[in-house]
C-alpha cells in the first residue's frame, strides 16, 4: 500500500483480495473494500442484472451474501435459512438450504425486527447465529450441520442478531436484548467443536468481565475495581444491557479483538445513576483468553440509547510525524473517533453529523460532555435532542477505501423528543421506560452519505438522502461506492466526488450489505439483498400503524411515509457489466 | 306528532342515554365473583364444522367491554406490565399494532383476553398466573379500545403518555374486517 498522506488498511488485517467475500466486513479490518476494479466510473452506467433470487422472507434483510470459490451463501432474517447458490451454473441455482428452525417465540423478544446481520466462512464451514440464541456451524459443501451451541435464553429476553467473527480458532458471538433487561456478554466458541472457550460479561464484577492484571485502560475514568458493579445502583448491572449485538474487528498482529457494547438498560437513565460500566463502550480483549486489555467508555451513563456497537475499522494513519495503528469509528453519539488501537487513547473525536445533545469529547479525561438542557428527566418531555436514539449512525457499517483514504458513512439525520418513565423489570418483556418520537433533523433530509477524511477530520463530500440510510456502504478499487436507500434505490457514486453514476430500483427498500466478488467467469460482480425492515423499516415489515408516533420505540414517527414508498420482501440482486 | 308524544319520547331517549351512561361508568368490585378462567376464545378466522358461526360472546364480556373503569384500569396495567414496550401506544413495534383494523387472533374482547392469558406462538407472552382474571379482562377492554371500537365516551380523553400521540377519544375509528367484526 502506498504510505502517502492518507489512511491505509493494515496488511495483516486486510490481506490481498482473492475475489471472495468471506465475512460481512470483508476482512478483519472491516474495510468493506473490494480490490476488484473492472467496474469504474466510466463504465458503471452499463451495469446490468445478472441474476436474482427470492429469499422467501418479508422481514428486514440486513445480511450480506457471502461468496466462497464459486458458491454464494445467503442467511435470511428469522427463520434464519441458509441458502447455497451455485455461481458456476447459469442463473445460480440453489445447491441446498439449511433450516435451523429457531423457536418462533424468539420473535417476541427481538427489539427491532427479526434481523440477522450475516454469516461467516472459515475453513470449510459457514458459521451463523439464530434469533433464538444459537450458533451453528454448517459444512460449506454439503450443507450438513457440524455443530450447534445454545448461548442465549429467550426467556430472559436474549436473542442473537449479530454476525459472528471467526479469528484464531474461535467463533466470537454476543447477545442482543439491551431493550429487554438482559446482561450483555461476548462468548468465544472453539471453532472445531463449538465448545465454550471463554465468556466475558460486559457488566458485573471484574472476574465476570475477565478484567485482570493485563487490563490497562488509557483514561482514569475506566480504572478501578469492580466498576461494572459500583457504577450501578445495587444489582442493576444484572439487568443493565450492555449487549454485544454489533461489529467486531480483529488485529492479527496484537491478537486483540475489538467490539463495542450496547446501551445500558433501561433507557430511562434516572433508574441507573452512575457511569453504568461497561455499557456504551469499547473493549479490546485477548482473543485466546478473553482477558480485557483496555476499555474506553465512549458514552458513560448513556441518556439517549447511544449504543456503542458500530463498526470498528482498523487503519494505519499519519499522525504528527509518524504513522499510528488506529481504529476508526463513526459512533452512534455522532462523533467520528480515531482511537489508538494499542492503548485506547482517543486521538480525535469530531462530529460527522448534527449534534446538540453533547458538547464534545474532552481528550484529557476521555469524557463525553453532555448538554444539561438535553438531559431527559422522568416525568417531563425533553424536546429536540439530536441525534435521536438510532444515533447519527446506527449498525449499518461504513466502508473504507485505502485508495482514496476516505470512509464512506451511510447515516441518519434524526432528532427526537424523549420522556422517561419508570420501567418495571419483568423478565422476557421490554425494559425501556421511555416514550420517544423521532423526526428529521436540520435540513429536513433524514439520511446522509458522508465521505469522511479521517486525517483532516472533515467531510470530503456529502449526499443528502430523504430517508435515513440503513444500508451499509461498499467501496471498490474502481473508485465506485455502492449503497442502498430505504425506498429501494441501489446507487453507485464516484468515490472521489459523490457524483451519482448509476442507480437501480429494487422491489423493496434496501438495508442489506452490498458486496463485490470475482465470479467463476473472472468478471467483477456486485451483489445486494433488498428487503426493507430493521428498526427504521419496522413500520413496513411489522405492518405497524403510523397513527402512533411512539411506535417502534419512536422511529415510526419519522417513517410515516415509508409504507407508501416501499413494500416488504427479501430479494437478492446481482449485477455485472455486459460482456 | 303530538307534543305529549314528543315529550315522552324525549324522556325515553334521555333515560335510555342515562342508563347507558351508568353502564359505561359501572364499577364492578373485585369481590364480585367472575368466572374461574378466561374463556378459550375462538378464532374468528376459522371454520366451525357442524355449525355456521363462531360461539356466542362470553357473558362476562359485558362487564368490561365499553366500560370506562375497566378501560382505565387496563390502561394502567398496559404501562405497568410493559405491554407498551412491544405494542407502543397501539402502533406496534416488537409486537403487532393494536390500533389498526386487523386482529390476528380475533378482535372480540373474549378473544383478546384469551390472547393475553395464553400467549400466542410468535412471541406474545402468556400472562396466565401473572395477572388476575379481572386484570386480564381489564387489559382486554383497553386493548380493544385502542382500535377505536368502543364508544368515544368510554375511553380516556387524556393521553397517558406525555410526548406521544393523540388521546384515545381522538383515535381514528378503524372498522374491523369481516369475521373480526361481530361483537354481539
Give an account of the 3D structure.
The complex is a heterodimer of chains A (579) and B (184). By secondary structure, chain A is mainly beta. Chain A has one domain: Methanol Dehydrogenase, Chain A (8 Propeller). Chain A is globular. With 184 residues, chain B is mostly helical. Chain B has a domain at 58-184: Cytochrome c-like domain (Cytochrome Bc1 Complex, Chain D, domain 2), CATH 1.10.760.10. Classes of the chains: A mainly beta (579), B mainly alpha (184).
Which features does this protein show?
heterodimer; A: 579 residues; mainly beta; Methanol Dehydrogenase, Chain A; five-stranded mixed sheet; 38 strands; B: 184 residues; Cytochrome Bc1 Complex, Chain D, domain 2
List the helices and strands and how they pair.
The complex is a heterodimer of chains A (579) and B (184).
Chain A: E1 33-34, E2 48-54, E3 66-68, E4 71-75, E5 82-86, E6 94-98, E7 120-122, E8 125-129, E9 134-139, E10 145-150, E11 165-167, E12 170-174, E13 185-190, E14 196-201, H1 206-209, H2 227-230, E15 248-251, E16 256-260, E17 282-286, E18 292-296, E19 313-319, E20 322-330, E21 335-340, E22 346-351, E23 358-361, E24 368-370, E25 381-385, E26 399-401, E27 406-412, E28 414-420, E29 434-440, E30 447-453, E31 458-465, E32 474-476, E33 480-484, E34 489-494, E35 500-505, E36 515-518, E37 524-530, H3 534-541, H4 562-565, E38 571-576
Parallel strand pairs in A: 1-32
Antiparallel strand pairs in A: 2-38, 3-4, 4-5, 5-6, 7-8, 8-9, 9-10, 11-12, 12-13, 13-14, 15-16, 16-17, 17-18, 19-20, 20-21, 21-22, 23-24, 25-28, 26-27, 27-30, 28-29, 30-31, 32-33, 33-34, 34-35, 36-37, 37-38
Chain B: H1 3-25, H2 61-64, H3 68-80, H4 83-87, H5 109-118, H6 133-146
Helix pairs in contact in B: 3-6, 5-6
Amino acid at each position: 500500500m502506498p504510505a502517502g498522506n492518507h489512511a491505509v488498511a493494515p496488511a495483516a488485517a486486510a490481506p490481498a483480495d482473492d475475489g471472495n467475500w468471506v465475512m460481512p466486513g470483508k476482512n478483519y479490518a472491516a474495510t468493506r473494500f473490494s480490490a476488484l476494479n473492472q467496474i469504474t466510473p466510466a463504465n458503471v452506467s452499463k451495469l446490468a442484472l445478472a441474476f436474482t433470487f427470492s429469499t422467501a422472507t418479508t422481514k428486514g434483510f440486513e445480511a450480506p451474501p457471502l461468496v466462497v470459490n464459486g458458491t454464494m451463501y445467503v442467511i435470511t432474517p428469522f427463520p434464519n435459512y441458509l441458502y447455497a447458490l451455485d455461481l458456476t451454473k447459469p442463473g445460480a441455482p440453489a445447491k441446498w438450504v439449511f433450516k435451523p428452525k429457531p423457536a418462533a417465540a424468539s420473535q417476541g423478544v427481538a427489539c427491532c425486527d427479526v434481523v440477522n446481520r450475516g454469516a461467516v466462512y472459515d475453513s470449510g464451514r459457514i458459521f451463523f447465529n439464530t434469533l433464538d440464541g444459537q450458533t451453528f456451524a454448517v459444512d460449506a459443501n454439503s450443507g450438513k450441520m457440524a455443530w450447534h451451541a445454545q448461548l442465549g435464553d429467550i426467556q430472559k429476553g436474549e436473542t442473537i442478531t449479530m454476525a459472528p467473527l471467526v479469528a484464531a480458532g474461535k467463533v466470537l458471538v454476543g447477545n442482543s436484548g439491551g431493550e429487554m433487561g438482559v446482561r450483555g456478554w461476548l462468548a468465544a466458541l472453539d471453532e472445531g467443536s463449538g465448545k465454550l472457550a471463554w465468556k466475558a460479561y460486559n457488566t458485573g464484577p471484574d472476574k465476570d468481565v475477565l478484567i485482570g492484571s493485563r487490563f490497562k485502560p488509557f483514561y482514569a475514568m475506566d480504572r478501578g475495581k469492580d466498576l461494572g458493579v459500583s457504577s450501578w445502583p445495587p444489582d442493576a448491572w444484572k439487568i443493565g444491557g450492555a449487549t454485544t449485538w454489533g461489529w467486531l474487528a480483529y488485529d492479527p498482529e496484537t491478537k486483540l479483538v475489538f467490539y463495542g457494547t450496547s446501551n445500558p438498560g433501561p433507557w430511562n437513565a434516572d433508574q441507573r445513576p452512575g457511569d453504568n460500566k461497561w455499557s456504551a463502550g469499547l473493549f479490546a480483549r485477548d482473543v485466546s483468553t478473553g482477558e480485557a486489555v483496555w476499555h474506553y467508555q465512549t458514552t458513560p451513563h448513556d441518556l439517549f440509547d447511544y449504543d456503542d456497537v458500530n463498526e470498528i475499522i482498523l487503519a494505519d494513519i499519519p499522525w504528527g510525524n509518524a504513522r499510528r495503528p488506529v481504529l476508526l469509528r463513526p459512533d452512534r453519539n455522532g462523533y467520528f473517533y480515531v482511537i489508538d488501537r494499542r492503548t485506547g487513547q482517543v486521538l480525535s473525536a469530531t462530529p460527522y453529523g448534527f449534534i446538540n445533545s453533547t458538547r464534545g469529547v474532552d481528550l484529557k479525561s476521555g469524557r463525553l460532555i453532555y448538554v444539561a438542557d438535553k438531559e431527559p428527566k422522568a416525568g417531563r418531555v425533553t424536546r429536540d435532542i439530536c441525534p435521536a436514539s438510532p444515533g447519527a449512525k446506527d449498525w449499518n457499517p461504513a466502508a473504507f477505501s485505502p485508495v482514496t483514504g476516505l470512509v464512506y458513512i451511510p447515516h441518519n439525520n434524526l432528532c427526537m423528543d424523549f420522556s422517561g418513565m419508570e420501567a418495571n423489570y419483568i423478565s422476557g418483556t421490554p425494559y425501556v421506560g421511555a416514550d420517544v418520537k423521532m423526526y428529521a433533523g436540520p435540513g429536513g433530509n433524514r439520511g446522509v452519505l458522508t465521505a469522511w477524511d479521517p486525517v483532516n477530520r472533515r467531510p470530503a463530500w456529502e449526499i443528502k438522502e430523504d430517508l435515513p440510510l440503513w444500508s451499509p456502504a461498499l467501496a471498490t478499487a474502481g473508485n465506485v461506492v455502492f449503497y442502498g436507500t430505504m425506498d429501494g434505490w441501489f446507487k453507485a457514486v464516484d468515490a472521489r466526488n459523490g457524483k451519482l453514476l448509476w442507480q437501480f430500483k429494487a422491489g423493496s427498500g434496501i438495508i442489506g450489505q452490498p458486496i463485490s466478488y470475482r465470479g467463476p467467469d473472472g468478471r467483477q460482480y456486485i451483489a445486494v439483498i433488498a428487503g426493507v425492515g430493521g428498526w427504521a423499516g419496522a413500520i413496513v415489515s411489522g405492518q405497524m400503524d403510523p397513527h402512533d408516533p411512539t411506535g417502534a420505540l419512536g422511529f415510526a414517527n419519522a417513517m410515516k411515509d415509508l409504507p407508501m414508498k416501499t413494500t416488504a420482501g427479501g430479494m437478492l440482486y446481482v449485477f455485472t457489466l455486459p460482456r | 306528532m303530538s307534543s305529549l308524544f314528543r315529550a315522552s319520547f324525549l324522556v325515553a331517549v334521555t333515560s335510555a342515554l342515562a342508563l347507558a351512561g351508568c353502564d359505561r361508568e359501572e364499577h364492578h368490585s373485585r369481590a364480585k365473583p367472575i368466572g374461574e378462567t378466561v374463556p378459550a376464545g375462538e378464532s374468528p378466522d376459522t371454520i366451525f364444522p357442524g355449525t355456521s358461526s363462531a360461539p356466542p360472546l362470553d357473558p362476562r364480556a359485558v362487564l368490561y367491554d365499553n366500560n370506562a373503569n375497566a378501560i382505565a384500569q387496563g390502561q394502567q396495567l398496559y404501562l405497568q406490565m410493559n405491554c407498551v414496550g412491544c405494542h407502543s401506544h397501539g402502533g406496534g413495534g416488537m409486537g403487532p399494532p393494536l390500533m389498526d383494523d386487523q386482529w390476528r387472533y380475533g378482535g372480540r374482547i373474549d378473544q383478546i383476553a384469551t390472547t393475553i392469558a395464553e400467549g400466542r406462538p410468535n412471541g406474545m407472552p402468556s400472562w396466565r398466573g401473572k395477572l388476575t382474571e379481572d386484570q386480564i379482562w381489564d387489559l382486554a377492554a383497553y386493548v380493544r379500545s385502542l382500535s377505536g371500537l368502543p364508544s368515544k365516551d368510554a375511553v380516556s380523553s387524556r393521553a397517558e403518555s406525555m410526548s406521544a400521540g393523540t388521546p384515545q377519544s381522538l383515535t381514528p375509528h378503524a372498522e374491523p374486517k369481516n369475521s373480526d367484526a361481530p361483537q354481539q
